[in-house]
C-alpha cells in the first residue's frame, strides 16, 4: 500500500516511473493506491524509490495520505480499513488538501529532550481528571523544543498542523503548509533561526509523511 486518496476524479491506475503501474482500490469516497507483490525490504534504494513514487503521486492528486513504508495488507483487509475509517480518513484528506510537509531538524541544547512519561509528569495519577491533566502536560512537553518558539512564531501564518518528534539531541518538527508557501516558509525559518541563534536544517516540500495513514 502506498497511499490513501479520494475516489472522486481519480483514475483506476497510476503509471509511475519508480514503481511501475499501481492500482486504485476504492471503497466509497475513499481509495487506496496499491501495488502487487511482497512488501519491499527497508534498504536505502527501496526507501528512495518509495519517496520518488510518493512524490510522483502527490504531484498528481490534490490530497494524499502516504502509508507507512512497507505496509502490506490483503485486499479484503484494506477494504475493511477504508470502510471502517472512512470518516477519519476523509477529515485527514481535507486537512492535507493542497498542502505539503516541511521538516525542520533542530539541534537541542545538550541533547536534552522533554520527559514524556505521563506518570512522571503527574506524580502518579490518582483520578481520571489527574490522568487527563497528565496527558495534556505530556502533549505540551512533547511539543517543547528549546529555542524554537521564535521560529514557530515567524512562520505560524502558514502552519495548518504540526508534529514533533525528539530523540538523541535532535528535534524533528513537521509542519503542514500550503504548497504555494514553501519558499516563503523556508526563508522565514532561516531568517528567524539566524536572528535567534538556533542551529537547524529545513527541508521540503515533501508529501505529508508525518500526517499520513498509519
Largest sheet: 5 strands, antiparallel
The fraction of residues in strands falls at 25-35%
Number of helices: 7
How many domains, in number, for the residues? 3
Low-confidence stretches: 111-119
Distance between the termini: 11 Å
**Beta strands, count:** 9
Helix content: 25-40%
Structural class: alpha+beta
Q: Report the average pLDDT across residues.
A: 87
SSE pattern: EEEEHEHHEHHHEEHE
Give the secondary structure arrangement, pairings included:
Blueprint: E1 3-6, E2 13-16, E3 20-27, E4 30-34, H1 44-58, E5 65-66, H2 75-84, H3 86-96, E6 99-107, H4 118-122, H5 128-143, H6 149-155, E7 161-167, E8 170-178, H7 182-196, E9 200-206
Helix pairs in contact: 6-7
Summarize the structure.
The chain has 214 residues and is α+β, with helices and mostly antiparallel strands.
Which properties best describe this structure?
Alpha-Beta Plaits; 7 helices; 214 residues; alpha+beta; single chain; 9 strands; 5-stranded antiparallel β-sheet; 4-stranded antiparallel β-sheet; 3 domains
